[in-house]
Amino acid sequence: MTFDNNRTFGVEIEFIGENNQRTTVEEINNYLQNNNASIRMYSASYSDCDSSKWRLKTDSSVSGTGYGLEVVSPILQGEQGYKDLMLVLDSINNTGATINRTCGLHVHVGVSNWKIKHFRNLYKRYCKFEQAIDSVMPTSRRMSNNTYCRSTVGSFTHNDNLKNAFDVIDSLRNARSISRHIGTRYTKLNIDSFWKHGTIEFRHHAGTTDTDKIANWLKLVMTMVQAADQMRSVKVKGFDCKDTYKDKINLMLKGLGQVDGSLVDATVKRFFTKRRRELCS
N or C terminus: which one in the chain shows less Cβ crowding within 10 Å? Predict the structure, then answer.
């Protein structure tokens, strides 16, 4: 399957480097050059916002034996953007990068043209299936176990009732009111990036440099955005609670597979089904 999606996207990949920022950039660029790539990695300060370049930054939130680093992609799109991402991941792994629980993977999807109805649709789907998504994540990324990716559904209901969460989402009249209601960007689904980057940010995924994990997660979240583009229906019953759908990862995947132009094909479904067995056995 080709990565046929018109939405722009970007990734932030946190990891622990064997070497410092400068040496790691040299190693990555040597790998890219040896593979005849037209892209290049640049050293950047933490505050650098040049979204036209691949940048390697230091990251003080990442701790362990080695150097806390973060690769930030430029704005990517379509098949070429996807191929560039996979090649950069290979180059990172070639440096001997490692991961621990202080690392995260953040995916941004461009939604600068969205209206409140699209945000509501995505937030409802994420609330409904948050615990199902938790089941394909390590324990450190479930519920509100991580300070940097707290529960999204928990921001909208304090009594576990999903219908209540949906009612709250429907009561919020614009994107700013959603942001104010949540009160932090450190949630699994971060709307605050909308005003700075024109994106919605998915912060749920654990740190990884594994190409299969990142490819399948990217296809999943891009299709969730596509479902909101198409205003696919998201429904709950009055008695449904936050954990009602925690065992329903297959239901979520089936629904996303029916989205027009879906990137969630049989391979993606098998990947997450297997992932859930491995993490919840």
Answer: C
Name the residue type at position 98. T
Q: What are 37's two structure tokens?
A: 């790539």
Helix ranges restricted to H, the chain: 21-34, 78-94, 116-134, 162-171, 175-182, 193-197, 211-229, 249-257, 266-280
DSSP 183-208: --S-BSEE-THHHHHSEEEE--SBP-
Q: For residue 13, what are its two tokens?
A: 């990949």
Residue 166 burial by Cβ neighbours in a 10 Å radius (0-12, 13-18, 19+): buried
pLDDT category, 158, cuts 50, 70, 90?
confident
Amino acid identity of residue 41, one-letter, is: M
Q: What is the mean pLDDT of the chain?
A: 97
Residues 41 and 21 in one domain: yes
Contact between residue 144 and residue 151 where contact means Cβ atoms under 8 Å apart: yes
pLDDT of residue 1 exceeding 80: no
The pTM for the full model equals 0.97
CA distances from 218 to 255, 266, 271, 278 (A): 17, 15, 13, 20
Report yes or no on 1 lying in a domain.
no
Q: What is the largest CA-CA distance in the chain?
A: 58
Going by C-alpha positions, the residue among 42, 50, 45 that lies closest to residue 25 is: 42
What are the tens digits of pLDDT across the range 25-44?
999 999 999 999 999 999 99
